[in-house]
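Q: Hi! First time doing this. I have a protein sequence and I read that you can turn it into a structure. Is that right? Here it is:
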Amino acid sequence: MLDSYFKISERGSTVGREVRGGFVTFFTMAYIVALNPLIIGLSKDADGKFLGGGDAPNLAAIAATTALAAGVLTILMGLIGNFPLALATGLGLNTFVAVGIASKMSWADAMGLVVLEGIIITVLVLTGFRTAVFRAVPAQLKIAISVGIGLFIALIGLVDAGFVRRTGSGPVPVTLGDGGTLVGWPIVVFAFGLFLMIGLMVKKVKGAILIAIIVATGVAIAIESAFKIGPNFDGKTFNPKGWGLNVPKLPSDIVATPDFGILGHFSLFGSFSRVSLVAGILFVFTLLLSDFFDTVGTVTAIGHESGLIDSKGDVPNNDKILFVDSVAAMAGGAASISSNTSYIESAAGVGEGARTGLASVVTGVLFLFTTFLAPLVAVIPYEAATPALVVVGFLMMTQIKGLDWADYGIAIPAFLTIILMPFTYNISVGIGAGFVSHVVIRIIQGRRSEVHPLLLLVSGLFMVYFLSSPINAWIG
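A: Yes, that's right. Below is the predicted 3D structure, encoded as structure tokens:
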């Protein structure tokens, strides 16, 4: 029954590979359950209130609701889209909601704008517009998007592990470790996990990524138990030799009762009584554009990595995949945890062999368990999970051989797409730069007829996106 429904054999996979892939995807993105509360849970709205309307942060409720939404939506992606793609609260989007939107209105108003964005993007899917835009992108630019995301997630892995860190000053924005030097046991755990993962993959060991994460976590727990390293930031002081997000130690309580008290705290149109109509529209537009094209990039990358993409650059069940992703944006706002979107960390599960929605169902079920087992999830440190992102980044980078570097109308946009994703830490910026430069070059070459009309429209919208700051200043 599983094989027939998910087309496991047809896609060259097995139930075992799908289950392993689902676990790996969960391990590489479970951090969002701990991180999302720190981003939206510690910020106050314009009324001086925390999310949920209280005078004190409710991090436990945000963590439980984040896991609940991720679990339900990821299972829906597996059952409806039959694609190895997991969803959760979008990083970057949650920061924009917390800092850029909620600071100017109440949390309920801000989440109402997220719901509005989700409704609009769902309508765009149902009318076929989102799918049409997806198909209007040249196949080689889709390859460039996939390669750029590969570099992006590799950089995410290196930064989250502390191997690469922000300098805060000086001529370059990042550097090796702490001031150019690798320090602390967590870096040792990261290096150990990375080389173990590479070694197992070279030896073609089944479950290489999953095995490496589990073993590295065990080593991390032993090191923390022996040396009492602690976190790299405890809320007051920074310890360059400390662990990233999670301190790897066995919790005293494995099971915790989930709190879903923030569900449904949103006001659909309340924001327009706090900010101008134009400002509200610009907020929704920014959310929409980022959500729209982050997903295009993610789906393209996962499709290439899994070998499910066809000669035109399309993936199977594309309409259903984009529909679930669009509903996720709406559901995230309704759940008061910010817009939910597709996660590029799903590529780690694909690297483990996942090819169908069964892997997503496994990941989703694990997220649902996390609503009760949040203390256990906190055992896995960044340094044990992030080697998977570096390895998968390499696998996605290999697609660069499919680009035609002799055609400047493709090569230059591809180059900008690839480098700007990691350099700006933003998928949409890379996609937008690639689209705009492709259109401009084709017009200069006198080959305007080769550019799809929808790509012209989208490039114009990206120009508005890039110029949003001066436009905001102009309209006051």
